[in-house]
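step 4 of 6: structure.
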Amino acid sequence: MRKSSLISFLSSQGVLIALAALILFGWLRYDHFLGLFNISTVLRYNSMFALVALGMCFVIMTGGIDLSVGATAALGSVVSALLSPYGIIAGTLGGVGAGLIIGLLNALIIVRLRILPFITTLATMLAANGGALLLAQDQSVSVSYESGFTDIGQGDIANLPVPALIAGAAYIIGSVVLNFTGAGRTVLAIGGNEDASRLMGLPVDRVKFLTYVVSGCLSGMAGVILASQFGAGQPIEGVGWELFAIASVVVGGTLLTGGLGSVGSTLAGVMLLGLIFNILNFENGRGFISLSAYWQSVIRGAFLLIVVILQSRLTDRADREEAT
Amino acid sequence: MTQLDLAPASPARKRDWRPRIARHATLAALIALVAFNFAFTNHFASLQTLYVNLTQVATIVIVGVGMTLVIATGGIDLSVGSLMAISGALAPIIFLGKIAPIGEIHLAVGVAMIVAVLVAGAFGWFNGWLITRFRIQPIIATLVLFIAGRGIAQVSTNGNLQPFKVPAFQWIGLGRWLGAPVQVVIMLVLVVAAMWALKSSLFGRQILAIGGNERAARLSGVPVASVKRWVYCISGLCSGIAGLVVIAINSSSDANLVGMGMELDAIAAVAVGGTLLSGGRATIWGTLLGALIIQLVRYTLLANGVPDDVAKLVKAGLIVAAVWLQGRGRT
């Protein structure tokens, strides 16, 4: 028991150590790395991914997967842009509502029809993408600048970007739910062993249903921020977000088979992958090297590779030690 | 723990007729679609329409063949689109003589094709190596190359479009062989070869054994790791070929776009075709039918004036409905 908690400590704290090392490296090497402007830019941009990854984290902890998050965010951005003339609340509710609908669809198909999450969310990804393009009539929809809708993405409160505050609040709530509520513990129980959880009388179906709904809503919220930050609802944005989110969750040490995971490490995973791009920009700015933006996916991929290999070695060792 | 079988055991007889009906249902749906088009779509009954649909579906089927084998072992390959981009980026670099000028164009094209496809196959083998050596889940292991693979293609071309006009190469996407488009011939050859392999070869039986019950397969002496590596390698080779076809049709290679979203198209074709997504039962024939149905539904809608966006919604419904009706791929 103590060994496995050591493993989970290493695989969850490893990402924090790596993140700290990356920040230290940036701070020592670049002048304005920890400047207010850079911090706020990085936080503002990555909060969208953070929201999507939070929903993904819960879904993955139950042993499922949600491929529809990127398309859902795009749909959310279109709906919120269309509703933005009616005010900040209408825009936000519209985007989150669109995400809610896709999330409900996912939950109903997965829990009621018992179709694999992978296939279900693949289909709803197509549906959300088609829906977004239909509503937007195949072009980006510019938001209203009069109604204050752009404050969600572009505004600051006490020098902190509003999207980062939203994401921060979501992570605090997520962490509390996971660690201190029955539903949260059920999420981990389902991922650990769904059949056993069912036999123990845990509300497996209800909690699974909720995770997909929450993932949909968070993706919709990411869409609202997207529209508000860039001034337009973008029906073809969000391609590959789902895999970025999965990568963040995995880098954060959450097991893809479910049953083990941490909300905080997921956030660290998002920041880690986001900072790679940021550091690449700074490095190019120094003029010694000139790595194109295309290198970021190579580096991210390499990073993911290292993490999964390390994880597998750690869990292998744990298995062997438990066996002896 | 293992004695406790929680899944309700369904009677053996029920198992027997179900896949057969499902298979015929896929074929019946395809025939119904064709009949509908004969009745309602103008100019449908022409060789040209047939070729347009077949050339469009060919790359999905080529990738789908490899994907079917991967899924038959209980895995998944998300990297196919990125591997297409790598092979598509590499081939022009070679036959345009950017590394070393090769005088004879046919030789250059031959070398380019073989190297590009082999490199894609090598990356596929790498996927298999990650999965077997480190026991990483296939979805994560192939996610690595899904992310990094497109980056490698982009870096190797600097993200630039590579336009070219080389008939000797473009034959693979634009040429005809005995009157039929070349990529359709390639598609059919691969389909027949894979059907034969799954049905009659030792390798094919080993694939299905692994997908059915990996532990049992290992205990009965199936070289699980080696079979799996080969399967992912084959998926990579198929993606490499598909990448060449795509850039030949486009007369240019754009690492940002080649093979984008292909993993989802191929998986959808496999799912609609009736291959069991948890492994152990596979039908290449079904994958061909599945790809044809998805393609034909889209064609039917577009030919009858329905916008592409709605076609996507219909495709989504189709995937869920097909998987649900077959009662397969269920949790």
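step 5 of 6: annotate
 - Residues 42 and 278 of chain A are 7 Å apart (CA to CA).
 - The radius of gyration of chain A is 20 Å.
step 6 of 6: archive
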